[in-house]
Specification:
The complex is a heterodimer of chains A (345) and B (265). Chain A has 14 helices and 4 strands. Chain B is an alpha/beta fold and 265 residues long. Chain B contains 9 helices and 10 strands. Classes of the chains: A mainly alpha (345), B alpha/beta (265). Chains A and B meet through helix 7, helix 8 and helix 9 of A and helix 2 and helix 3 of B.
Chain lengths: 345, 265
Amino acid sequence: MLRRTLASNWFYVVLMIALIVLPHAIGWVSGDSPFGVRGRPVGQSIYWQGILIEVFVLAVLAMSYNLVFGFTGVISFGHALFFGVGGYILGIVLEYTDLTGEVGLLIGIGLTLIVSAVLGLVIGLVTLRLRGVYFAMFTLAVAEMFYIFFSRLALTRAEDGFALTELPVWIDPTRSRLTFYYIALALLAVTFLFIRRLIFSPTGAVLLAVRENEERARTIGFDTLRFKLLAITVAGMIASLAGLIQVILNKKVGPEVLNVSNTIDPLLMTIIGGAGTFTGPVIGAAGLHLGDRLLRDLVIEVGGASIDIGANWALILGIVFILVVLVFPYGIVGTFRRWRTRQAK
Amino acid sequence: MQENILLETRDLRKAFGGLIAVDGVSVKVAQGSMHSIIGPNGAGKTTFFNLLTGNHAATSGNVLYKGQDITHLPLHRRAHLGIGRSFQITNIFPNLTVLENVRLAAQALGGDNYRLFRRADSFQRYIQRARQVIDLVGLNAETLLPATVLPHGGKRKLELAILLASDPELLLLDEPTAGMASEQVPELIQTIDRVRRQGGKTIIMVEHNMSVVMGVSDRITVMNQGRLLAEGTPAEIAANKTVQSVYLGELYGDLNEAAGGSHGV
């Protein structure tokens, strides 16, 4: 059983082992310890761990978005709300209570999950009866409302936000980055397995049915509102955990976590990678974020003119997006899979 | 004539703004019967049908199923009472396989919809049921194809299979042969008739194709301009002068089709 599972998923197993070994490999090649240099969080390995943690965060966020968009067929523009809520709740718990260290962290995580679930249920119940674009607009409005409130309220320290200074040492990314790297990697792996499990379950089958043809799904007896609610709530909880990792990495929570880019980015990553596929959002997240990081400082000379890639990143991303939609209408993974099934026939 | 009434409408009305599509229609459908609804284009057949299925909300009047008022019951709750429907315009899950299309319908009423941590394909009873129904409509060879690649006739069969998979007591068929090649029509109608006789089902069928209706119906309701024009056995309807005068053009057309075989869209 285990052997068969490993054999049919060899790609994921190899990738996982590679990601576990990677910080050490970078450390070995560069000579900078993966634990930091002279007790300080510097060096090549630490730097790349930070970037990869960001990739994992975005991948988890994109996977959660894909659960709603790609598998259930519901277009939400309010996903940033769930992402941001995670960070803010941890910030509020650490700032306003005497809870610190592990206790504060655990209560922060617990509250994050509860609040994001409640938010998902409430927003879903109020808005899911709306169809298509109206639903999308409403979720955008709700998320923007939170963004504006949180960037002005004294309770949330307005534009400043909170610095997360009272984290336990073992998770503090400036003191124990490698541990934190593995925590983020674990979240990525668990999310991936969880979503796959869910989609292959009878419940997941109904989500696909809702995506394919909601009217028919209702006619054969599914209370589709419940299933959409379930998808939004579960996805919201996953997104809030991604947000939590992000703010712990930055050791800071501010209104930027609620920014609409945290909705648009996972949307683009999902479409580019392949909506409704398991690996698509991960590939999309890795591709876009690594592309951004690697090309940020690149300046290329073309016929005497120098083009600053970093400064024009949004433009390049736009072109990439148009090309992907034209060349890979089902995203990279989706188009590849269709191509392979055609070859097999 | 003391029969067991399975479904009844009382003075059912549906208005779209100023347009009254269904105007006070009262019909009784006996258990185990095949009851057809016919009428010229725009007679309100499909709207009336959608009131029975719950796709439209009635403006006034009632729909009773086994004596229970279901006028305002949502779609999915009607399915749980044993009411199933098919659609005139094929309404399937296009990117799922034929098997998965039918399996979903078998799963829908089975009570395992919230089993998040078991694989859907570990529930053999739904798969068996799906294969059984696929066999019945004759789609065995296409079981693992995505539904979207089926030819039109195949999609019509799949439409019927999805309906049959949940084993409803009352089957509402909206032009089951719509757009099918005429040589395939008798086969599909025979399948429907077999299902009814073997399973003791009640069927309400909206049909445009007169020749289809005459052969298999126990009773026929004729609608015109939103109202009930006539009701009776096929022989009574065929002999009815009012029906003939209102329906003559259509009837001629359909009889010609039945004879000539060029069945339109």
